[in-house]
Specification:
Layout: E1 4-5, E2 19-23, E3 26-32, E4 38-42, H1 48-59, H2 64-69, E5 75-83, E6 88-90, E7 100-107
Antiparallel strand pairs: 1-6, 2-3, 3-4, 4-7, 5-6, 5-7
Length: 110
């Protein structure tokens, strides 16, 4: 798949580059889409476990206790390759391994 501008995988809105955000004791680099989805950046793509938990906590507005009680049926997720220099995404693995990852999450309507 070709590189394309950063877009929400749930609603296709174009998004700004991830920015530094502080919520309670959570420091992340990410953003929020108008559809309610959140996105969190893992600059090197090697720390997905921690970033995944950060995304869940961000989705729960900084409430870590609520984040760890969510079950997969309660939210949707997408993990996409991201080039920080060009603010573009791709679903194909990087051959050079130099791309970061962006995790998108949003709560499901139950």
């Amino acid at each position: 798949m070709r590189r394309r501008p950063l877009q929400c995988p749930f609603c296709d809105n174009y998004l700004a580059s991830p920015a530094d955000i502080r919520i309670r004791s959570l420091d992340i680099t990410g953003g929020i889409c108008t559809c309610g989805a959140v996105y969190v950046l893992d600059r090197k793509g090697h720390n997905l476990g921690e970033i995944y938990l950060d995304a869940l906590t961000f989705l729960c507005k900084g409430d870590f206790d609520k984040a760890v009680t969510l079950v997969p049926e309660q939210y949707e997720e997408e993990i996409i390759d991201y080039d920080i220099h060009s603010n573009t995404i791709s679903r194909r693995e990087s051959k050079t391994g130099r791309l970061g990852k962006i995790i998108f999450m949003r709560l499901r309507d139950l």
